[in-house]
Design goal:
Shape: rod-shaped
Helix content: over 70%
Radius of gyration: 32 Å
Number of domains: 1
Order of helices and strands: HHH
Strand content: under 5%
Oligomer: single chain
Length: 131
């Protein structure tokens, strides 16, 4: 006589399948999290480099402009008030233009995490249609 089939083999197979699915999902999630961390680190280093260069450019440009204005004021000593006033107007116009440009830049959407979001979209598409 054969032993009755209690279905334990099918439960073991189902459990193993669920465990395998869970491990696959965790592995995929870990890979995506690592990609996200790499993107954040790359963006951080890029922004630090840009900030350092921008600060250096701003400092050296300001120093050069100040020296040029004082040189012109010395060259045209009799009209020094006119020279300083004209350059003050130019500086204010440039400051307003930069503020407008900065405002326009802030309104642009960020491209941060585009790689991670694209990979997640591919993962979702594959889960929906496994083929």
């Amino acid at each position: 006589m054969t032993a009755p089939n209690t279905g334990e083999g099918s439960h073991g197979g189902l459990f193993a399948s669920l465990k395998s699915l869970l491990l696959t999902l965790l592995s995929t999630g870990r890979t995506r999290a690592e990609l996200l961390v790499v993107e954040i680190e790359e963006e951080k280093f890029r922004l630090i480099g840009l900030w350092m260069r921008a600060t250096g450019i701003a400092f050296l440009t300001a120093l050069g402009i100040i020296m040029a204005v004082f040189s012109l004021a010395l060259a045209f000593w009799e009209q020094r008030v006119l020279v300083f006033g004209a350059f003050a107007g130019v500086f204010f116009i440039a400051a307003f233009w930069l503020a407008f440009s900065l405002r326009r830049q802030f309104r642009k959407p960020s491209r941060l995490f585009q790689g991670s979001l694209g990979e997640l979209e591919q993962d979702i598409a594959q889960l929906r249609d496994p083929q």
